[in-house]
């Protein structure tokens, strides 16, 4: 096959590209330039897609012996990831930009261009596994190394995208083995730290970045009954489950700490309450997709597991897709054990065993503790 290897400049994508070559594929490496003004050097393990990362990717490609290119996707990245991130926070939701990047950039814009140029697949260094069922349909599964499993951030992939995806690291038992392999191959990135945080906020100051791009406006902090208990300098700076940094002038009647339960951007209000109120008995969303074949009867309740964060534990649940009161299809999940601190805008990825069944962006939540309880 003719394979386009997305090379971030990290150890995982370098080893993935090398394995694709050894599997007999015709491989071309490409680094995505996602910022018009990238930082010259990374700071520790923050961020990615810098000039240094591009150079690391090129060195790895040279050692593997494959052609290497840099493609400018900065315009698309700004529109589909950065602007979406700003809009979601302005609407009081908590987005996951890595999900949007995988959905809109790596497996939409990049894959579209790859197919136009005659490539058969896009190869990445994600830790996930693609399996084929008895009828020849491709399915997305967890990687063998659950500690490093990245199937959650790939939950947005569709059946068509899975047809052209390749994850050579999916069956590797540990990241340590990948680093050892990179060292044996002589890759300079063998000991390079993993990137974390949001790549377009490399200094990690998300609150300050949002204040600059969304703006700040003083508002009120309310309890669940609607009483004013404090003030804030911008609702965007708060997220569901937050405890620290609350400017509360009125203590709780029981003297216990209070947590952010809801952010209301239209009224610029933040709602707080007891920790127990963070327990969520139901989540639902209209923006959903299936990773491969959809269930034959999604309108009938089915057993599944739901995961609401990249490193969260999956929780047994019941899922169903039904029309809401406005006649719009809505994916609803009721966990057997209440979920903790779920915020609208987060992505819920639904599994059946190790298989990723699909995902949805959470639009609404139902607390397990009613107001006044």
UniProtKB/TrEMBL annotation:
<feature type="active site" description="Nucleophile">
    <location>
        <position position="101"/>
    </location>
</feature>
<dbReference type="InterPro" id="IPR004506">
    <property type="entry name" value="MnmA-like"/>
</dbReference>
<dbReference type="GO" id="GO:0103016">
    <property type="term" value="F:tRNA-uridine 2-sulfurtransferase activity"/>
</dbReference>
<keyword id="KW-0820">tRNA-binding</keyword>
<feature type="binding site">
    <location>
        <position position="32"/>
    </location>
    <ligand>
        <name>ATP</name>
    </ligand>
</feature>
<dbReference type="Pfam" id="PF20259">
    <property type="entry name" value="tRNA_Me_trans_M"/>
</dbReference>
<keyword id="KW-0808">Transferase</keyword>
<dbReference type="GO" id="GO:0002143">
    <property type="term" value="P:tRNA wobble position uridine thiolation"/>
</dbReference>
<protein>
    <recommendedName>
        <fullName>tRNA-specific 2-thiouridylase MnmA</fullName>
        <ecNumber>2.8.1.13</ecNumber>
    </recommendedName>
</protein>
<keyword id="KW-0547">Nucleotide-binding</keyword>
<dbReference type="GO" id="GO:0032259">
    <property type="term" value="P:methylation"/>
</dbReference>
<dbReference type="Pfam" id="PF20258">
    <property type="entry name" value="tRNA_Me_trans_C"/>
</dbReference>
<feature type="site" description="Interaction with tRNA">
    <location>
        <position position="126"/>
    </location>
</feature>
<feature type="domain" description="tRNA-specific 2-thiouridylase MnmA-like C-terminal">
    <location>
        <begin position="282"/>
        <end position="358"/>
    </location>
</feature>
<feature type="binding site">
    <location>
        <begin position="6"/>
        <end position="13"/>
    </location>
    <ligand>
        <name>ATP</name>
    </ligand>
</feature>
<keyword id="KW-0819">tRNA processing</keyword>
<dbReference type="InterPro" id="IPR023382">
    <property type="entry name" value="MnmA-like_central_sf"/>
</dbReference>
<feature type="active site" description="Cysteine persulfide intermediate">
    <location>
        <position position="199"/>
    </location>
</feature>
<dbReference type="InterPro" id="IPR046884">
    <property type="entry name" value="MnmA-like_central"/>
</dbReference>
<dbReference type="Pfam" id="PF03054">
    <property type="entry name" value="tRNA_Me_trans"/>
</dbReference>
<dbReference type="GO" id="GO:0008168">
    <property type="term" value="F:methyltransferase activity"/>
</dbReference>
<keyword id="KW-0963">Cytoplasm</keyword>
<dbReference type="GO" id="GO:0000049">
    <property type="term" value="F:tRNA binding"/>
</dbReference>
<comment type="similarity">
    <text>Belongs to the MnmA/TRMU family.</text>
</comment>
<feature type="region of interest" description="Interaction with tRNA">
    <location>
        <begin position="148"/>
        <end position="150"/>
    </location>
</feature>
<keyword id="KW-0067">ATP-binding</keyword>
<feature type="domain" description="tRNA-specific 2-thiouridylase MnmA-like central">
    <location>
        <begin position="209"/>
        <end position="273"/>
    </location>
</feature>
<dbReference type="GO" id="GO:0005524">
    <property type="term" value="F:ATP binding"/>
</dbReference>
<feature type="binding site">
    <location>
        <position position="125"/>
    </location>
    <ligand>
        <name>ATP</name>
    </ligand>
</feature>
<keyword id="KW-0489">Methyltransferase</keyword>
<feature type="site" description="Interaction with tRNA">
    <location>
        <position position="346"/>
    </location>
</feature>
<comment type="function">
    <text>Catalyzes the 2-thiolation of uridine at the wobble position (U34) of tRNA, leading to the formation of s(2)U34.</text>
</comment>
<keyword id="KW-0694">RNA-binding</keyword>
<dbReference type="InterPro" id="IPR014729">
    <property type="entry name" value="Rossmann-like_a/b/a_fold"/>
</dbReference>
<dbReference type="InterPro" id="IPR046885">
    <property type="entry name" value="MnmA-like_C"/>
</dbReference>
<keyword id="KW-1015">Disulfide bond</keyword>
<dbReference type="GO" id="GO:0005737">
    <property type="term" value="C:cytoplasm"/>
</dbReference>
